[in-house]
Amino acid sequence: MKNIVFSTAFFMAGCMPLPVPNSTITAHEYIGLHEYRQRQELTELLEVDPVRTEWCAAFVNAILELDDIPNLHDIESTAPLMARSFLSWGIPVEPENIKRGDIVIFPRGNQGWQGHVGFYYGKTDSGKWVILGGNQANQVRYDLYNPSRAIGIRRYPINTDSPKRTLWGFNPVDLERQGENKWEDH
């Protein structure tokens, strides 16, 4: 519980205020879940054992699935549990156009296939990016990352043909079914 309080207080003081129009709302509900202390709950969410599997990509996939957004399993990625597989998901975004909810991929380790992935949440006054993700210090939490280390930023494409455009392209029937407060009109 201490980590949750710290995270909330940290971001109230350190980030620029931004609206929350996307998967960060869903992901935030899992803040503080730890791979050892909440192993069973995480295993059910991720469909992998977080103690035995690097699970950052599994967490992003699970959140996207909860929000009815295609994930790496849906696009039949050959490696849906690899963070760098998100480099081929959605559409690319330039760093100056990053928005809350975009997926950011970072390098990790000393092997070219290793990586880390999470949701962009905001930016601190010092310019660090706040990333909401799984397997960050063995739990779901916010962490700070240097933007220059990002190897990719991806976003689910907006459906411009929808009668009521939203960040994720759902129509009004979907909005009503999902709950109006979960989405933002554009």
A few lines on this structure:
With about 190 residues, the protein is an alpha+beta fold. The chain is built from five helices and six strands.
Measured as a percent range, the helix fraction is 10-25%
Instruction: Provide the CATH superfamily.
Output: endopeptidase domain like (from Nostoc punctiforme)
What is the number of domains? Answer: 1
* Sequence of strands across the biggest β-sheet: 1-6-2-3-4-5
The CATH topology label is endopeptidase fold (from Nostoc punctiforme)
Low-confidence segments: 1-21, 160-186
Globular, elongated, flat, extended or rod-shaped: what is the shape?
Answer: globular
Instruction: Work out the helix count.
Output: 5
The SSE string, one letter per element, is: HHHHEEEEEEH
Number of strands: 6
Strand content: 15-25%
Mean of the pLDDT scores? 81
Please identify the structural class as seen in this structure. Answer: alpha+beta
